[in-house]
Amino acid sequence: MKDPVASGGPSGAVRAFHVMTKPIGPVCNLDCRYCFYLEKEHLYPGNERFKMSDEVLESYIRQYIETQDVPEVSFAWQGGEPTLLGVGFFRKVVELQRKYAGGRRVHNALQTNGTLLDDGWGAFLRDHEFLVGLSIDGPARLHNAHRVDKRGRDTYDEVLRGLRVLKRHRVEFNTLTVVNRVNARHPLEVYRFLRDMGSGFMQFIPLVERSGDAVAAGLGLNLALPPRVDEEEGRPPAVTDWSVEPKQYGEFLCAIFDEWIRRDVGRTFVQIFDVTLGNWAGEGPGLCVFSETCGNAMAMEHNGDLYSCDHYVYPHYRLGNILDRGLGDLVSSRFQRQFGRDKSATLPRCCRDCEVLHLCRGECPKHRFLRAPDGDPGLNFLCRAYKRFFNHSAPAMQRMTALLRNGRPPAQIMREMTSGHRGRL
Question: Which of 363-397 are b and which e, b meaning 16 or more Cβ less than 10 Å from the residue's Cβ?
């Protein structure tokens, strides 16, 4: 198998990779009860100033553009809450991107909780064509269950105010919804709310948090890959009370899929449905968690430290700092390539024989802390959910794949389902 990040290009560039950039580190104006990233302040104790310096910013933008052998380069800015840095920081970002673009087109995506957006932000984001990801977990009572500010106050109204700013300035946006034990009980209410508020592209991120991981991270402990299994008891470590349950998540996806396939194909885009169709059609999933290997999606902290993945920001997975070693060298390092290959190499036997392996690929390694029925370690906590969803959606996915291969839009499936029969190809 070819290494997915191979040397190439006239300047020693590498093929496309992705970095989730944290210009303000874990600092946020909210205190969401389920947030796993706020704990990362423990990585930088003392009087650390969680703001990316001009030196790191310019070096990163230059290296990120120059290192990738692609015609278009996409930056992703997250946190914490990146809007805490103010519009001025991102004006600097745009200026540096123009300086180093070298004729290539540059895209920017900004993930935000939306509470700090105002007309100044709206005008900037529109003028510079930023794609905004808005974090919202559903209607008020579901969103406010976990997404609160530092004083424990609800944030729904402030997020909706930010949404109105985006709409008023015609900023392109999508939504990111963390599926937890509360909102997972109400799949259609969540989906219809997002659809009706104007979200044309939805990401549903399952919340799985191990109760001991925050402590481990704070102590700087090294975590092996795959994550540990409780050897003594033969049971997985406990997950938090807000983590979604596997059966819940499977039913959540199936309920939304059933509504989407009957009325919203081609109008509303749901990330997991898109990547599943991509896999059925042989185009690849375009998402690391459902890829055979990983290692091409890293995270960079405010000071230039690069980590193997956003979910592996622990000392053991620190690849180095971009001011000390070139970004391309870090991305293509032996450690990172092995990290990516381990995703496939550590699959338990039952996964290798599974009927949905070509769609699931074991999902994210951070969720692999169960034991398989035969005792193998490394079974995904959400295995039951994905088996349920991938098998449930298979007939419709196969039909849409056939439509695509015959030059017809997948949305035709809605008409076929309404008429009660499948059209002839």
Answer: bbbbbbbbbbeeebbbbbbbbbbbbbbbebbeebb
Burial (CB count <10 Å: 0-12, 13-18, 19+), residue 316: middle
Residue partners of 49: CB distance under 8 A and separation at least 6: none
Is the whole-model pTM more than 0.70?
Answer: yes
On the 0-12 / 13-18 / 19+ scale of CB atoms within 10 A, 315 is middle
Virtual CA dihedral for 343, 349, 353, 359, nearest 10 degrees?
Answer: -20
> Helix, strand, or coil here: 363?
coil
The position carrying tokens 């957006």 is 117
Helix (H) or strand (E) holding 319: strand 318-321
For the stretch 158-212, pLDDT in tens is: 999 999 999 999 999 999 999 999 999 999 999 999 999 999 999 999 999 987 6
Q: Which two tokens stand for residue 242?
A: 């807000």
* Residues tagged active-site: 310
Q: Mind giving me the DSSP string for 243-283? A: SPPHHHHHHHHHHHHHHHHHHTTTTSEEHHHHHHHHHHTTS
- Structure tokens belonging to residue 89: 């920081």
Spatial separation of the C-alpha atoms in residues 346 and 15, rounded to whole Å:
25
CB 293 within 8 A of CB 299: no
Please state, in angstroms and rounded to a whole number, the distance separating the CA atoms of residues 18 and 239: 29
Token pair 């939504």 in the structure block, residue: 175
